[in-house]
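User: My collaborator sent over this chain with a note saying "see what the structure looks like." That's all I know about it. Can you take a look?
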Amino acid sequence: MLNWSKIDTVLLDMDGTLLDLHFDNHFWLTVIPEQLAIAKNISLAQAQADILKRYQAVSGQIQWYCLDYWEQQLNLPIMELKYQHQHLIKMREDVPAFLTSLRKAGKELILLTNAHPESVMLKFEKTNIDNYLDGVVSTHQYGVSKEQQSLWQKVQLDLGFDKQRTLFVDDSLAVLNAAKEYGIGHLLAVANPDSKQPHNEISDYLSVTDFRDMLP
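Assistant: Without extra context I'll predict from the sequence alone. Here is the result:
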């Protein structure tokens, strides 16, 4: 369990942590290949192979999270397509009680996401999750993703948190590894980021499938 008496600041990922990752997985793994197949007049299998190769080439880099980059690469109206599928954007059902409890306990709640600002705004419109937060940071304002140590240095400089008294919550092991390397004192992994997929087995970090089990 977490020792809440030793935590002042909670840094929270968005997609797969506060929000169900099903929207993003469906969008990038189903909608985009289908649209690419239509646009290029190729088979769905060809489009899927093409897109996976492109994803792997920039995995963990800021480009992977950049909607402008993908619009340019694929010549597709990314935000327009996101709006068409926005009905799939949902907050995890355990999140409101968790964030409300943290606020009552006097914790500072900061969203720290690799998501593009336009995507962040769409998700705020759909979920009102920003009403629970004290601050919002998209790594795009720094031009570098959470997987990189330079991002952590810049964010700590700007936010001024004590890394030993900070909890970071994310569903990405690569990102949690970067936070650990930087010296963030408390780490929590989300084992069920996508409601339509099986839970992930996580051994390296304290993990959670229902935030209500972690209330202070």
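A starting point for your reply to your collaborator: The helical segments are 22-40, 44-57, 67-74, 78-84, 95-104, 117-127, 149-159, 173-182.
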